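Homework help board

Subject: predicted structure for assignment chain

Our instructor gave us this sequence and asked us to write out the predicted structure in token form, then describe one feature. I got the tokens but I'm not sure how to describe them. Can anyone check?
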Amino acid sequence: MQKMIVEIPDELVSQFTPYQDRLPELMLLGLHQVKAQEALLLYSRGLISFARAAELAGLSRTEMIRQARAAGVRPRWSEAMIQKELV
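My token output:
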């Protein structure tokens, strides 16, 4: 296992102290959240599909939908997509 040194600003140390025995879990949760946010940003800018965003975030499509809703990200629909679905 590799070791990593993380500097925490003085004003945040007191917030981390109660969780010091769970820091790996805390970091993993934060990593998952950042990956989801980055993937949703790419999706919202039209750079990737929703399925690809879920893949990049390491989430199922269902969980990615939950993340998108929580972040206020709306589905991208074009008129052509709607017409294709209606046929």
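Reply (TA_rk): Your tokens look well-formed. For the description, you could write something like this. The chain is about 65% helix and 0% strand. That's the kind of observation they're looking for.
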